[in-house]
Specification:
Blueprint (H helix, E strand, L loop, with lengths): L2 H128 L3 H49 L10 E5 L4 H7 L4 H10 L2 E3 L6 E5 L3 H17 L4 H30 L6 H9 L4 E2 L2 E2 H18 L4 H10 L7 H4 L3 H11 L4 H9 L9 H15 L6 H18 L4 E7 L4 E7 L5 H18 L8 E7 L10
Helix pairs in contact: 1-2, 4-6, 5-6, 6-7, 8-9, 8-13, 9-12, 9-13, 11-12, 12-13
Amino acid sequence: MPLGITTELLVIGFAILIISNYLVFFITRRVTKANSHLFIKQAKTKAKSIEKEADYILKDAKIKAKEYELQHRQDFDRRLVELEAESNERLKGIKDEEKELQRERSTIRRLKDEYEAKLREAYHIIENSAGLSVDEAKAILFQRVEEEEQANILKVVRKYEAKAKEEAEKRANYVIAQATTRFAGEFTAERLVNTVKLQSDDIKGRIIGKEGRNIKRLEQILGVDIIVDGTPRTITLSSFNLYRRAIAVKTLERLIDDGRIQPARIEEIYEKVVKEFDKELQSEGENVIMELGIGNMHPELLKLIGRLRYRASYGQNALSHSIEVAYLAGIMTAEIGGDEILARRAGLLHDIGKALTHDNGGNHVELGADICRKYGEGDVVINGVYAHHEYEEAKSIEVATVCAADKLSAGRPGARREVLENSLKRIRKVEEIALSYSGVETAYAVNAGRELRVIVNSSLVTDDDAYQISKKIAKDIESKLERFPGDILVNVIREKRAKVLAKTL
């Protein structure tokens, strides 16, 4: 075959090969594209199916959640009604018991009057018939009465002791029922007790010390009631003052870690903890004003802001309340065209006086205004302190919003409990009564206000004076406190301490 024909055939074959490859590629590409559209369509169909199924599951879950919530709300409401009915029934029983007790007291007074009348008549008869003096007649009659009535007196005493125990149990059950119906989660932080966990029960003996000297010194310095009972590896600290109790917890934990629990070491650790708390309070105040963005403030005011964390008003934490008022006042002021930052500052400081009432007593409004004036706060802030309790009229938009925010924060459901605040006021009043006496150095109400421990200066007060002071304080408590539950034990402590410095060469 000629070479030219062969070359042409090769070229034609090569061209056919290229064309066939292109056709295969084109056909394959069209098929692949068609298949991809099919796959995408199928995927979209499946996605829609899955989405519908998910919507169905979500709707079903919401329905079940609502049913669950409704069921539990119904159970809660039913239980609440039962508890209220139960507490009302117990309260009615207590009132009936009080009426019965009042009738018995009236009967006792009547019998006492009759007894005294007959006794005077007996004096007269004996004096006239036997020629005895009044003192001799009294001696004879008292001897007879003591012999004949001693057994009856003991029976009466036992009867009223049993009645008192029964009354106390009913009262306790009533209080528990009330607490159950009024409980709020945030209140747990404001209870009157703290617990300290121990590694072993052997530490309890070291805390008590020889003849109880360590625990007595701890209670005297810390101003709290330390309860060492049978609870395993636990010690309870009780005090109405949250700040004092926090210092006591930290001091006791430090002593336990240190291991040297003795009076001198107790004082040393206590002083260190107090200094640390002062620094922490200032740091707390700095964090608050930074969070609110209200600029600089005097260091002493910062400490007082931090101390509000350890103060409760009607069961509501004072620092949380002040921050809440600051935010609310700032938002409302910004909405009506006022100075938002100034409103926040006034809102934060409106209750600053409450940080001082535990130690100084008095009205928190006056204390707050004085402290703000002392450390250079402006007229708007001071007006906010006065106006939120209507001591003055609000003189600016910022102060008006502070007053409104204070009522909003305090008035929301569950924010406050008046029972707790009244109890704390009574306890503070008890301490103030004791501190008003000459020679009294410190006074601590412990055990939820059922005991008042009064520390007197041994160089100014004798043992006999201490007894007289305890009687006078008890009478003042009875006359000056309108109402207080149960009895208050007045415990006057007179301690003589001798200190001599040994100098070494």
